[in-house]
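Wed. Picked up where I left off yesterday with ATP-binding protein. The coffee machine is broken again, so keeping this brief.
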Amino acid sequence: MKTAFVGKGGSGKTTLSSLFVRHLATLGVPVMAIDADINQHLGAALGLDEAEAAALPAMGDRLPLIKDYLRGTNPRITSAETMIKTTPPGEGSRLLRVSEDNPVYDACARPVELDGGAVRLMVTGPFTDADLGVACYHSKTGAVELCLNHLVDGRDEYVVVDMTAGSDSFASGMFTRFDITFLVAEPTRKGVSVYRQYKEYARDYGVELKVVGNKVQGQDDLDFLRAEVGDDLLVTFGHSDWVRAMEKGRPPRFDSLEDTNRRALNLLRTAADSAYERRDRERYTRQMVHFHLKNAQSWGNERTGADLAAQVDPGFVLGESVTAAV
Ligand SMILES: Nc1ncnc2c1ncn2[C@@H]1O[C@H](COP(=O)(O)OP(=O)(O)O)[C@@H](O)[C@H]1O
Ligand SMILES: [Mg+2]
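Structure written out below (tokens, as returned):
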């Protein structure tokens, strides 16, 4: 299943993404961790040192390779140049699977050894000023979106994306690409206002949005979140000494994580699992087409000089039974 952590900067997206990834690793299930945040910190949170994190290949720099591979022999996509971040797969496209080896993972994914086992990590790469703002052709998160739209993930396979709640993800449709979205919020007015904005965008698309309270210190914090977000509050994390020790460069063994925080992680997994059961593959495909047509019209057609609506394969539904072209 596809999961995302979003929220205000500093709320704890990277911390909770990394804890969730570590938790899943102890269960022995396949995990793909993706850093799609403007501030690239997931590698470090998974224990990589500065040099290791800096050596991670940037997906944003490998877009031509990613596009060429995914396009496969799809006759509706005539070149990698006309493939934009929202171009949907169709007959002939190559699809990705969480556990396989493929040229995209060879180029972009690296294994990270954790207490429980290894996970794969992919990163968009550092953002520059030119990347930010409007629906940008070279948008780095576009590489992530393309991969998500070509990824067939099964039950018990987890994709965990550390992401911002920025305008780019709303323009492109990235925010609709997940089985469940965990909105990390501290018990503050700012934390909750990001939730409201997200909820507003999510409303029309049936996005499964759950609030994960973080740095929650007592009853008053809990009451505040309950009053502000109601039933959308899934679970809360307290201050973690384990995280603190990790930040001091003395990573403890993961099995020494606080019990309450471990229970909270387990709840995240349960919520993700049940969201996966409710996945609607046709709606998922319909939404990628919707955002593609929107992007084609607003900038894509003009930028590529092609009619990008013609890339849509009307009979295609992204699902596990689809067989990829070889
Ligand atoms: N539950 C927690 N316990 C202790 N420290 C935390 C916790 N959650 C986040 N932090 C700390 O707060 C800071 C911001 O968290 P981070 O995950 O980097 O936020 P974001 O990715 O949303 O910007 C980091 O120093 C992190 O270690
Ligand atoms: Mg972060």
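Quick read: Residues 19 and 265 are 8 Å apart (CA to CA).
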